[in-house]
């Protein structure tokens, strides 16, 4: 027995979406109107990272904001830094991310995870370079994902 699926291009608010309910560990069929309402009123659902701006000097330690949110760290030193240490947050949430950009070269970069391990963090960063780390709660580790 075969099934023909709709080729409808534009969904309507009466259509249903399959949503994973983390609290109850099951799937729920939810009207698209409810999904639309959730995304329009709860900005945390969109998971927009908080921005943090730093203009450190060589040898400085930058502590990334420790608020449990995703962070976009924008580093804007005056020139090349011979050494910089980044300290990752300790108030952690599973799947939390930290995105780091630098407008200048970081010749020696140290990334400290505090009580968590850090895997794959760069030891240098080119001018206008970036990297992204994601935290995994089960193994208490940060992993480079970009």
What does this structure look like?
By secondary structure, this protein is mainly β. It has two domains: 35 residues, no CATH class; 98 residues. It contains two helices and eleven strands; from the N terminus they run ββααβββββββββ. The strands form three sheets. A six-stranded mixed β-sheet has the order 3-5-7-10-11-9, with no helix packed on it. Strands 4-6-8 form a three-stranded parallel β-sheet, with no helix packed on it. It is elongated. The model has no long low-confidence stretch (mean pLDDT 86).
Low-confidence stretches: none
Radius of gyration, in angstroms, nearest whole number: 21 Å
Provide mean pLDDT, rounded. Answer: 86
Main pleated-sheet profile: 6 strands, mixed
Strand order of the largest sheet: 3-5-7-10-11-9
Instruction: State the secondary-structure class.
Output: mainly beta
* Spatial gap, N to C terminus: 44 Å
Helix content: under 10%
Which overall shape is indicated by the principal axes computed on the Cα atoms? elongated
The H-and-E topology, N to C, reads as EEHHEEEEEEEEE
Strand content: 35-45%
Total discrete domains: 2
How many beta-strand runs? 11
Count of helical segments?
2
